C-alpha cells in the first residue's frame, strides 16, 4: 500500500511548514513513494530505504466470529480390526428348576422269562377253627301300580306289572324263585289329590289265601308310606304274593294315585 509520509507535531497535528509546496509535488510523491520524502521546503527528496522497524505488540484478540455452516457428512470409515477376546466371566447363579415334562409313553412289555421249576409241596398246615356264620344276604322284589282314582269300599291288588290296581285277585302275581323269609315291606303311595284321612290298609297276600298287614294309615296327605320292618313270612320256591289294598269310604276320595315299593326277603 502507498503511504504519504507527512510530519506531525506532538499533538498529531499537521505542521504547516511541512506541507507540500504544490499539488504537482504531492502527485509526484504519491506516484513514486519508494525512497522519497518531503523536504522542509515542500519539495520531494529521495533517500535510501531505512531499516524495517520493530514489530509492534500483538493487538487484542477480536471477538469470535459466528459459527460457519455445518459441513457435509463424511464417508463412513473402514471397520476397525476385531479386538482381543476378553476374559471369561464368573459363572452365573443357577436358574430355577424347569417345569416337569409330560409323562412319556409306556414302554413295550419285556419278553416273559422262562418258568422256574416247581418247588416241593409244603406240609399241610393245621386247620383253623371255623369262623362265625356270615350275615345272611337277602334280595328284594319291586312292586308297582300305575295311576288310578281309588273308589270307596273296594279291595284291589297289584304286583310288579306296570298296570293299574286290579279288583280281582290272582292277576298280579309275583313268584318266589328263592326260598326265604319276607322281612320288610316298603310301599310308597302318592295321590295328586290327597283325599280325607279315613283308615287305608295294605297287606301282603300269599298264594291268594293268607293276608299279613303291612300298615294302616289314617292321614290326609298326598304322600302315604306303608312300611313294616318286622315281618316274618316264610316263602318257598313257587309261592306267589300280591299287594292287597282295602280302601275305605272316604269323605273326599284321593285321586291320580300311584304306587311303588319293594319286598325284602332273606
Structural account:
Helices cover 3% and strands 29% of the residues. It contains one helix and twelve strands. Strands 3, 6, 9, 10 and 12 form a five-stranded antiparallel beta sheet that branches. Strands 4, 5, 7, 8 and 11 form a five-stranded antiparallel beta sheet that branches. Strands 1-2 form a two-stranded antiparallel ribbon.
Tell me the layout of helices and strands.
Blueprint: H1 23-31, E1 36-38, E2 44-46, E3 139-148, E4 155-158, E5 174-175, E6 180-193, E7 200-206, E8 210-217, E9 223-228, E10 233-235, E11 240-246, E12 255-265
Antiparallel strand pairs: 1-2, 3-12, 4-11, 5-11, 6-9, 6-10, 6-12, 7-8, 7-11
Nutshell version of this structure?
It is built from one helix and twelve strands, in the order H-E-E-E-E-E-E-E-E-E-E-E-E.
The total of beta strands comes to 12
Class computed from helices, strands and strand pairing: mainly beta
Average of pLDDT: 82
Strand content: 25-35%
Shape: elongated
Low-confidence stretches: 1-21
Gross CATH architecture of the domain at 139-265 = Sandwich
Q: Can you tell me the CATH topology of the domain at 139-265?
A: Jelly Rolls
Give the biggest beta sheet: 5 strands, antiparallel
Helix amount:
under 10%
Terminal Cα span: 151 Å
The CATH class of the domain at 139-265, by name, is: Mainly Beta
- The CATH superfamily label of the domain at 139-265 reads Viral head domain of polysaccharide receptor-binding protein-like
Name the helix and strand elements from N-terminus to C-terminus, one letter apiece. Answer: HEEEEEEEEEEEE
Rg computed from alpha carbons, rounded to a whole number of angstroms: 71 Å
How many DSSP helices?
Answer: 1
Oligomer: single chain
